[in-house]
Structures are given as C-alpha cells and as structure tokens.
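In the current project phase, the collection of sequences with tokenised folds has grown. A representative record is quoted in full directly below:
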Amino acid sequence: MKQTTGIILIILAIFLGLVGINKLDESERTESFLGIFKFHYEDESAKEVGYIFLGLAALLLIGGVVSMRER
C-alpha cells in the first residue's frame, strides 16, 4: 500500500513540476515594436505561483521517495 502511495505522490510531483515550469515560462515575455523597440514584461504574481508549484512538487517528490523506501 505504501508503494502505491509513493508512486501517486511521485506522479503528482512530476505534474506539479511541469505546471510550475510552465507558469514560470509564461510569466516572462519579450515583444518587439516595429522591430526597433523591445519590451520585456514580467508578471511577478505568476512567477510566485510558479515557484510555489515547484516547491510543492519537491515536497511531494521527497514524500513519495520516503514512503517507497519504508517497507
């Protein structure tokens, strides 16, 4: 039973990690105006959410590995 729980936690960690990376990717954007001017936008709240997802993913990964090691 603990191995099943560990596998589920690891799968959730991978999913949350991918969502976090995607949020970080979307938080920064560079656009060009007439090919001359470049504007760089950063969404700080989206960046914070991305880091929160990555932190939760790390915790779930650790919990999944620990629960699979215990027999």
Residues 30 and 40 are 4 Å apart (CA to CA). The mean pLDDT is 85.
